[in-house]
């Protein structure tokens, strides 16, 4: 049985009371092998021998310290009470002490990979690479021609299309619509493959239940867009050798021959003023200028062409958080009514996920963020979901768990997309 049908059945049936357990469903299917099987931790760590990054834990007492560390080149992945941990290039790590930061521990990425990949299956067959994602989207569109259309919102550095599934029976393709619109995105960051799976799961869920009264209402009144793989070049680069590369950025070749720009620091919202790095080698490199990347240009053009967009969700991993603007400013959203809507909407969604809702800059200030730009430029109520887990590569079992609760949150978001301001009444 093809993976596309597997994914459709898994996500269409997983949350239904009438369906069997995940194990029962899975055992009844013939799962394909991954096109390039992921190797065990030891082999993956050996492959990383040429990678000069370290996993470090650094003392950081507040969001201002965390912001400074981002600017120093640290890709913050985990936040503790008085520390942060993440990836940093060796050259930038060696400069931390001179900038007043105390490094509590350091570990070469090769050793970190050994520790954090030991529990992985030999092949994460249920995860979708670029071609499998496209096949899944094509399959959903072909099975639901009355409700869907599939088109590219733009091309990447390497020429791959960024595919978007539109769920709207009235208007197809790029035809304008007056319906209130919602936009869901996944995989801005290459190594966050779980975010692609959640977005795909949402599409399958909505179409599997298109005849149910609640979902039918949204299909009849809203304009829904789902682009599960925003950074396909980076996602492919992360897995192309069969060994995870822990890659975050796209695949631009920088002037110093390092690879990639952080797409979620490349939007024109206080671009590269705080919480981003000007070092091309850094995982949080903001790029040479705002919207320098074809991937962010594609999102910009898509958003600007659709005056009907009311809500936006960008899926990331990992932290079990739901974040809203501002990311690039340490002050709350200035418009009191909008701030009330953001807070109410975040609480509504996290009632289903159990994640913590908060303003992005409560973690650290990070400019050039997708959601900041969408809200500042177009007034769209935009959110970042940091999916659950303790690693970027949480294995196959995490897909069902994360998808089930985030689908419920997404359906809640659809329920208020017609008029978000009703939450401020």
Brief overview:
The chain has 425 residues and is of the alpha/beta class. It is built from 14 helices and twelve strands.
Task: Write up this protein.
It contains 14 helices and twelve strands. The protein has 425 residues and is α/β, with parallel strands linked by helices. The protein folds into two domains: 66 residues, Alpha-Beta Plaits, CATH 3.30.70; 280 residues, 3-Layer(aba) Sandwich (Aminopeptidase), CATH 3.40.630. The strands form two sheets. Strands 5-6-8-7-9-12-10-11 form an eight-stranded mixed β-sheet, with helices on both faces. Strands 2-3-1-4 form a four-stranded antiparallel β-sheet. A hairpin with a 5-residue loop joins strand 5 and strand 6. Helix 12 runs antiparallel to helix 14. About 9% of the residues have low confidence.
